[in-house]
Structures are given as C-alpha cells and as structure tokens.
Design a protein that fits this description.
Blueprint: E1 3-8, E2 23-24, E3 27-28, H1 29-37, E4 46-50, H2 56-64, E5 69-72, H3 77-88, E6 92-97, H4 105-112, E7 120-122, E8 136-139, H5 140-146, H6 160-164, E9 171-176, H7 190-196, H8 213-216, E10 224-229
Parallel strand pairs: 1-4, 1-6, 4-5, 7-9
Antiparallel strand pairs: 2-3, 6-8, 7-8, 9-10
C-alpha cells in the first residue's frame, strides 16, 4: 500500500498571520513541520494549501524546498482533501496541521504499521497527548466514501465527518499511559511562538529539529497502548 502525509497550512491565519514563515532555529515553522512529516517513512510529505493568491508565496517556498504541493478549495477542507487523494493516488494518508512543530514522526512510523489493517488509526478519540501532537491515519477509500455525505458545517474541518461516524468504522485508538492532554505544543498565537521558539535554538551547530514534546516538558517517554474499537454491526 502507498501512503503519504498531508500537511495543511495557509498564510492568513487570523490569530497569527504568516506564522508558517516564523523562524525556528535554522528553518521556519512550515519547513520544520514538512521535515518531520517526511520522516514517517512514506516519502516526502505533501503540502495542502489553498488556490488563493495569498498562498502563492507559501506554495512557492515549499516547492522550492523540495516538497510536493497540492492547491485546492480555500474554505472546504474535505473537498481539498479529496482533490489531494485523487492527485496523489495514495491508499492512505496522515493528516497533519502546519502549526505543529512537535509532530512526533516516531509515532507516525509506529502507526503506519497498521496501514491496511484499520481504516482509521487515531490518538484523538481518547485524548492523552498534547495539542499539536495529533496522529491520524485514514484510509483513502474510507475518506472518499464518507466525503459523499459530509454536512456543510463540517467542510471547514478535515476529519470531523469521519469522527461523527466513528461508531461504524473499525478503528484503532492510540493512547498514552500518561495524560498530557492539558498541554499545548502548537503555535496558534504570538504567545505560543514566544514560549516555544527557544526550544529550536542552535546548539553547537546542531539544530534541535527533532526534539520530542515529552523532552520539552521534562518528562519520561510515555508508554503507548493501542485499543481496538470495532464497529457495531448493522442489524
């Protein structure tokens, strides 16, 4: 099976405009996320951004950095994802937010072992990981099926319509033995950036691009558990 990682980003964030270009160590936010997402063992990650002119610079920057870019619907993320599935022909994909510099690619590698065995693998069903450390692996055929019946209010979310139907999907839930769900490791505001940017400072000419969230929090690496959630039969 062929899989990929879709990284969702745009340039005109309301809370922190142009945050994709904020410097982190020797790179910037979007470059750091694309680099981590490309370490899932699935080849280079793909940027999913909009077809608006405001995102021309973002698309050009990522392409120049050597990553594929798919540009699609500005406001309907489900439609943009369907376009990306069709363009990449991926059998499954990971959803990644472009403001998540602590994306854990080691978790991504662990989860990718279940590709083809479960149409949905996620650590968001029972939240035990910090915000910004989301892992979602979704079968493309599953996504295409459910994209035919998503609600208008779900268009601005990539996977909301999937979770609404999770009781009908064979799902593997990833949980940590320790509840770190109250922590936020995403860059959504200027305060987030000021709080987290120092982690990626260059030390002895070596960038800390792959530092784990639990190291930043001065915690031990958590133990993981996978829980099967079998769908209910239609009687």
């Amino acid at each position: 099976m062929e899989g990929t990682v879709f990284v969702y980003a745009r340039s005109d964030s309301t809370r922190l405009p142009r945050k994709a270009f904020l410097p982190l160590g020797n790179s910037c936010l979007i470059e750091l996320v694309m680099r981590r997402a490309s370490c899932f063992g699935l080849g280079k990650a793909v940027l999913l951004t909009t077809s608006r002119t405001v995102d021309d610079e973002l698309a050009a920057y990522v392409e120049k950095s050597g990553y594929p870019v798919v540009r699609g619907d500005a406001f309907d993320l489900v439609k943009r994802t369907v376009e990306a599935i069709n363009q990449t022909s991926a059998d499954f994909f990971f959803r990644v937010n472009g403001d998540s510099p602590f994306l854990d690619y080691k978790l991504g590698r662990e989860v990718s072992r279940y590709a083809g065995k479960f149409p949905l693998v996620s650590n968001l069903i029972e939240r035990t990981f910090p915000y910004g450390v989301a892992i979602e692996m979704i079968s493309s055929s599953l996504y295409l099926d459910y994209s035919r019946s998503y609600k208008p209010e779900e268009a601005e979310h990539v996977t909301q319509h999937i979770y609404r139907n999770v009781g009908s999907i064979d799902t593997l839930s990833l949980v940590s033995e320790r509840d770190d769900s109250q922590a936020s490791m995403t860059i959504d505001t200027k305060e987030d950036y000021e709080r987290l940017k120092g982690v990626f400072n260059v030390d002895h000419h070596s960038e800390n691009w792959d530092v784990a969230y639990w190291q930043v929090m001065n915690l031990k690496e958590p133990s993981l558990k996978f829980v099967e959630l079998n769908c209910e039969p239609n009687l």
